[in-house]
Inverse folding.
């Protein structure tokens, strides 16, 4: 987890595939997974971005460092999923949109065969479609 959290901070990302030494997707970890792990069990979960989860579930009686210490030495698969949703490299934009929508996820690893070759996100699709639309206007 220490490496994953450092990667998120250094690369300004909110999730990443967990890959085997062969480059195959064996899981996925996101900031939402971390926030869900840190939250208090007596609060109901709600759909929101990770900052809302962080604020909504933070217990002011427990110091930030103590909560983070409880996470840092865990294996990423103890918090993330070991059943990653992936999409094939040659998938259509429609296929990607359907997958993201049907699985209710914000991002998925893109695979060529079984190897991870990238990540596709809802925000990347939104930016692409917006630029495409605006380009047609001018």
């Amino acid at each position: 987890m220490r490496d994953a959290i450092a990667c998120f901070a250094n690369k300004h990302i909110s999730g990443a595939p967990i890959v085997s030494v062969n480059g195959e997707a064996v899981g996925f970890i996101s900031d939402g997974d971390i926030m869900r792990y840190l939250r208090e069990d007596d609060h109901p979960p709600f759909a929101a971005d990770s900052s809302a989860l962080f604020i909504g579930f933070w217990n002011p009686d427990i110091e930030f460092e103590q909560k983070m210490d409880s996470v840092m030495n865990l294996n990423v698969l103890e918090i993330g999923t070991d059943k990653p949703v992936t999409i094939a490299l040659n998938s259509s934009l429609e296929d990607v949109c359907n997958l993201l929508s049907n699985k209710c996820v914000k991002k998925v690893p893109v695979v060529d065969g079984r190897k991870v070759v990238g990540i596709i996100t809802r925000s990347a699709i939104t930016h692409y479609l917006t630029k495409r639309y605006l380009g047609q206007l001018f």
The chain has two domains: 1-84, 85-138. The radius of gyration is 17 Å.
